[in-house]
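Continued from yesterday's entry.
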Amino acid sequence: MLLSRYYLSIASLIALASFFSLPSFVLAAEKSAVSPAPASVQASPAVSMIPAVVARVNGAPVTSLDLKRANKVLLQGQRGAKPTVDQLKELEKQALNQLISAELLYQAGKKIEMKELDKQVEEKLKAGKAKFANEADFAKAIKELEMDEASLRDYTRRDLVISNFVEKTVVSKITVTEDDARKFYEQNPDKFMRSEALRASHILIGTDAKTSPEDKKKAFEKAEKLRKELAAGADFATLAKENSTCPSSKQGGDLGYFGKGRMVPPFEKAALALKPGEISDVVETGFGYHLIKLTEKKAAEKVDFKEARQRIEEYLKNQKIVMGVGAFLSETRKTAAIDILYK
């Protein structure tokens, strides 16, 4: 089985810095396997105070640069929140624990022979570079993380070694049957309810926070003019293509299907109030002025087992992978020589 759906791509890995060697499901497994880090492992704003080597795992070093990158990744995951000092300390503990787990997995993976590993590394690097618009964007991305192609190549190698280890020792032993999937389906009916869905098109006359009051007035007047044209029988798709500032204008304003919570509240409220075929009055949001046409409304319904089966099997398999990797890490940590040097 290919593990691409579970592993971070090289482009993602560049963005996720020091988790090059940690598949996303391994991060989840590590949380259940690791004991809390020593209280002495703390987040420090003074990077210069961090030793060059923050930990050793069976003699192999975990560097301060690894930890710096890992901290940066976790902070980016806070989505704009401002962590407290205690939260920063906890994030740093998580980062160090994840780096230690990565090293344990890598050391175990090196014991399994891999054919043409160098070729696989180059292929994965090539695929990762292809996700960037150009060479300059790629170089900028790795430079921002204090990396070069040599260190990227090393992280890629580690990633492949860990992937191979998990594939050979965990994934290959996992089975999920149709009965397993059906049992999960029957025991979790709430997870398979598809909420009410709408399909709508819109015409957007865009404004933003920098738009002057005079220009906003003109935008509203233009939207009103278009509304009157629609009321007189003008074709919605044609007006959208000619006037809408939204990229959906290329599709005649069609936004496809969306459920509750997918659109900004004023837009959603107006769309929900329409009947199929109806067109709204001018609706203002932070994006500007909209005219909305409701195309179709689908009632809430339960997804049948046939449709849900593949996703259930993938979910159950992923859970078993998490548990398997977690069990390995938990057992390996009992005998590993792990020295925390960052006091």
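--- second protein ---
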Amino acid sequence: MGMERHILIAGAGIAGPTLAWWLHRYGWRVTVIERAPSVRTAGQNVDVRGAAREVIRRMVLDDEVAARGTGERGTRFVDAGGRTIAAFPAATSDTAGATAEREILRSQLAELLLERTRAQADYRFGAQIGSVRDETDGATVTFADGSTERFDVVAIAEGVNSATRTKVFGTVPRRPLGVSVAYYSIPREPEDDDWWRWYNAAGGRTISLRPDNVGRIRVMLSFRAGPGEPGPRELAARFADAGWQADRVIGALAGADDLYGEALQQVRAPRWATGRVVLLGDAGWCATPVSGMGTSLALVGAYVLAGELAAHVHHQDAFAGYERVLRPYVERAQQLPPGTPKLAHPTSTLGVGVLRTALRLVGSVPEGLSGRLFAPPADHLSLPDYRHLEVTGAPTPG
């Protein structure tokens, strides 16, 4: 392929380091920048499913991901007294189930990927892109500190609210889902178990408690709302009379240093590349957490983008191949079941009762069938094989 090619990756979450890992295998020089001062430690349980599980296997990381698993045994829907309405055990396959077989904290997956790429890429924390000037022989990036550098390709993997995407692509279409979500963690108590417990209250509210492997419980509060990130006061007011463990989770809000929130919205970028700049992960196609596919899409997208960049001399051809392979997979992931996520957030007491009746019915069918009912479209992609493009002598992860 001639001279060593150099990529700048903006974002050190899941997609960015995965792209770094694969491009190093293909002989690229890799620089990764992250505006945060260090790896972000906040985050909830994430799934690695289907084609993404195969990507992890090809990175020889499946055992590591399993070893850092949350220990979640499955999902239970409960009533105000904590009694189980329906239970769905964790999957024993690559795809099925509300709880995936490979369930890991987002921060621990990010840390694992950083560990495996720290020696292979130039990581720069506390750095961000100011502007990108596309030129015939490269992209000149001016960083926020005023310094400049030339790259062959720039990949934006900064997430749903990427500032760099807006600078380069302008405003991209988004689809709001009408639900706001807040995430944080609380101390684990003796009565907590290793099941994901989901509770619905009238008013379109849910309380979700999930186990982790560090002695805490991950809280997710969601409710029907307009745009905007919910803060502690709004959350306390909205959930004051919700029942079940509302008092416990509200009481922990004031001391929650890992609280963050979002209004769920999908990103529907009509094009993923312009010039030498390409979008990756949520920055290009956020499917939202309710899809169950965010992390899997990030892993698969990084794998495909790296392979296409390695397979083509010209970046335009690589970007075209990337979209050709990946866009149908992304579009399937973004096609949420009808009524999602509002069906899971009934506003009336009657609506909550109807939902619980439906859950009891689903919970009464054979486990294999119920697991398929919860399965996102994680297997609907035959991964291309780019192994012939790897550079001889590339290090094997330990």
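The domain at 6-71+102-174+266-338 is CATH 3.50.50.60 (FAD/NAD(P)-binding domain). The CA atoms of residues 57 and 63 lie 8 Å apart. Will compare against the first tomorrow.
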